[in-house]
Amino acid sequence: xxxxxxxxxxxxxxxxxxxxxxxxxxxxxxxxxxxxxxxxxxxxxxxxxxxxxxxxxxxxxxxxxxxxxxxxxxxxxxxxxxxxxxxxxxxxxxxxxxxxxxxxxxxxxxxxxxxxxxxxxxxxxxxxxxxxxxxxxxxxxxxxxxxxxxxxxxxxxxxxxxxxxxxxxxxxxxxxxxxxxxxxxxxxxxxxxxxxxxxxxxx
Length: 203
Prior knowledge:
Layout: E1 4-9, E2 14-19, E3 30-34, E4 41-47, E5 50-58, E6 64-73, E7 88-93, E8 98-103, E9 106-111, E10 117-122, H1 145-148, H2 155-196
Pfam family, one: Beta-prop_AT5G49610-like
Protein name: F-box protein AT5G49610-like beta-propeller domain-containing protein
Organism: Arundo donax (Giant reed)
């Protein structure tokens, strides 16, 4: 049985399936990622003590397929006692190129650019890591006493005004994105329902 990626195109509203390559480690835990140049789709998996990176590339004949782009030897990066069983990749921080690998009961982060390894969690019960990046917007209701006294707006208040405009644009984009995600969710529910009842098929 092949492992596949379900793709939904928001511009055409069409769904398709991208199959992963059949190889000895395809059944291992696999994490989707952007390629190292952030221009394409990739995935990563661990087999033995090696982290394999794959990228979807176009061939000379125009056909698109999977190509193994990089292999990282974990034996030289992780402690010896962390390799008593084969590690597994459990997460990826898109945009910064950091993988999260579980070795026994310890989660390590691996930076693809610097190949630096950090221990981020020690304990059992972790099946996957979903990293996120937060941000802080300056307070939008800053004290306006200086303006009431005839003073001009401070640098902080000017920055807050700019941030509020940017936030408005971001809120609109977020609303559109949420609507698109709701549509995808409804389509996926219908697809799963059809597949469970033997009425649907992948194309």
